[in-house]
Amino acid sequence: MTAPAGTTIDAVVDHVDVVADQVVSLVLRRVDGRPFQPWQPGAHIDVHVGDGLVRQYSLCSSPEELDHLRIGVLHVPDSRGGSKAVHALLAGFQLAISEPRNNFPLRESRRYLFLAGGIGITPLMPMIEAAERAGKEWTLIYGGRSRGTMAFARQLEDRYGTDRIRIFAEDEVGRLDLDSILGMPRAHMLVYACGPGGLLNAVEERCMGWPPGVLHTERFVASTLGAAAANAPFEVELARTGSTIAVPNDKTILEAVEGIGVRVLSSCRGGLCGTCETRIISGEPEHRDAVLTEEDREAGGIMLVCVSRAAAGCPRLVLDL
Amino acid sequence: MTATTHEANVLGDDPFATENLLDPYPFLGRLREAGAVSYLESTGSYAVAGYEEVYEVLTDFETYISSGGLGPRDIRKDSGWRPPSILESDPPIHTVMRRALTGVINPGTVRALRQPFTPPAVELAEQLARRDRFDAVTDLAEKYPLRVFPDAVGISDGGREHLLPYGNMVFNAFGPENYIFKQAFAQEDEHAAAVMRNCQRENLDDTGFGAQIWDRVNEGIITEQQATLLVRALLSAGVDTTIFGIGNTLSVLVRHPQAWARLRENPKLAKFAVDESLRLESPFQKFHRTVAVDTVLGGVHLPAGAKVLVFLGAANRDPRKWGDNADEFDLDRNASGHVAFGMGLHQCVGQPIARLEMEIILQQLAERVAAIEPDGAPVPILHNVLRGFESLPVRITGA
């Protein structure tokens, strides 16, 4: 159960650690001393940083320990004040936060490639822990400007070893060689990438030749370090059927539509074959398939309902179903 | 994963024996029941027939590779009868070729085909509806794709007669070099040369898929040889399979008059009728993959280099996936996930074109034909890997 959006919890800063240049880690506890609600890797919390500012920060503590939450915060000098306000927090300060919410869930797979750019390491830490606990094959590729700016790098190496934690500091080895990291599609491997937009764009481009659905990204909007809604719930109105259904974050449009008995032809259910192409009457989709061309996407009239969703900020799609 | 392995169940049946080709389902049922992975003495290959294992082999493209060829021989050691196609390639070569193809065949370009594909279907359906009886294979299924598809690719009228014999060679070569293979290859050089000529840029019109594939050469995405091979892939994979798809769909529908009546009432059901028919009577029944590294599947150890015969047509009738009525046609069934077009990286790139052709011709026929029923026994075709009919006589009542 998640608390309704808008409900806040009073939390207190238990302690603050400087974990890298310009990066602090904050450990938060509930003021009432109760445990936090269970959460899954990839989750974030809203932090009310004062003056009406709300920022999202990914959790980098262990979901096994619910007596506290930890977030990592990069100080961005030109930001609109969120990170600055958080950096000003000291142990004992109180602040309002939300219960953990997850727009970036870790899906079941046999292998994982985790790809972090800078502070993007935070949501990947609980994912790595979960993958390790489940005995999965995984690797972390972690790039940053220099080791000194890369939070938790040493800690991760010590815990998991340098075979699977591969640190690429730009001042030592240059930029991440994404071509060699992602050049060869792998079977049954999901890619979870989090970091600045430039890195994620480059990752997306290289993953074009992978089976669709393998790449999961969480974008830090540069100015706020807030996470884009990777898998937010939304509504779909079925114009011909005459009903409106909710699409929760763990279901596809196709699954939701089939759930009320409306037939949609589909085949691969992974954005590869194009069979479930559906006409959009209104609303803006976020295309996640490997089939539609740029022209089709720009024209905006169709989407593949097996993988694509509503765009961030579009609460409702109206489909010709 | 547990490390416990056991020996594959050894089966003496030959999947390429004439009786198993003409009526595959009794054998496929035995094969599914024999265990997750069997070893076929007759072919010296492993076999998977359950949905779960077939899906696994199709989607784990690293363990079960395609560059060993889709036939029983490993073409990495023993070169094949022709330069390897996209079907016989793995990433990263496959990735480049696939991207070139999906740039050309995608929902937008296929949508544009509805308009040119419709009038020939109307004409053919009108002509057939005036008759009392016709052969749904020779008068319909073989006519329609040959009429519209080569135009979409953009090949000239001369040489189209080689497409069916060439497709027959390509697909029969996914099985052993038996008498069926030898018959298909009797005039190999003539057919292969004619089709290769059709794939050259200068022999393609300027607007079809063929020319668009060649545009990728100018963009530096693929080589000239790859362009030739991709056009060849379209021509060899895009005709026979669609013919069989139409024939097989009608072979099912003539036995289900109620489904035909519903189709006439609601033409939107046509695509679902096609999909369920493809599940039940899958045109492309089986092909081989090659094991790249020692692995375990369904508790059976598979050594690197082994060939696995993948029975798509059996997976599509697996009761564990489709329920107790897996062997029956059910227009209301959600057939999504069937593997008639394959699955994973190599899933048929022409799938939307084939589906479009099948939907259009079925809708046009259903509009004009009130009832359709068998007019004598259908004649199954003798083919190593495709399932279909040489002849499907039907009797109709005009609308």
Which characteristics define this entry?
heterodimer; A: 321 residues; alpha/beta; Elongation Factor Tu (Ef-tu), domain 3; Rossmann fold; 33% strand; globular; B: alpha+beta; Cytochrome p450; 3-stranded antiparallel sheet
Question: Can you describe this structure?
Answer:
The complex is a heterodimer of chains A (321) and B (399). Chain A is α/β, with parallel strands linked by helices and 321 residues long. Chain A has 3 domains: 9-97, Beta Barrel (Elongation Factor Tu (Ef-tu), domain 3), CATH 2.40.30.10; 111-227, Rossmann fold (3-Layer(aba) Sandwich); 234-319, Roll (Ubiquitin-like (UB roll)), CATH 3.10.20.30. Chain A is built from 8 helices and 19 strands. Chain A has a 6-stranded antiparallel sheet. The longest helix of chain A has 13 residues, at 121-133. Chain A starts with 8 loop residues before the first strand and ends with a strand. The relative contact order of chain A is 0.12. Mean pLDDT of chain A is 87; it is low at 221-229. Chain B has a single domain (9-398), classed as Cytochrome p450, CATH 1.10.630. Chain B is built from 19 helices and 13 strands. Chain B has helices spanning 18-22, 25-34, 51-59, 93-104, 107-111, 114-129, 136-141, 143-153, 163-172, 179-184, 188-198, 209-218, 224-237, 240-253, 257-265, 270-280, 312-315, 319-322, 351-368, and strands spanning 9-11, 38-40, 45-48, 64-65, 133-135, 286-291, 295-297, 300-302, 307-311, 369-374, 379-380, 389-391, 393-398. Chain B has a 6-stranded mixed sheet, sandwiched between helices. A 3-stranded antiparallel sheet of chain B has the order 5-13-10. A two-stranded antiparallel ribbon of chain B has the order 7-8. Chain B is globular and about 60 Å long. The model of chain B has no long low-confidence stretch (mean pLDDT 94). Chain A binds chain B through residues 183-188, 208-209, 211, 258, 263, 265-269, 272-275, 277, 290-293, 295-296, 302, 304, and chain B through 59-63, 91-92, 95-96, 98-99, 102-103, 106-108, 110, 271-272, 275, 334, 336-338, 341, 343-345, 347-348, 351-352, 355.
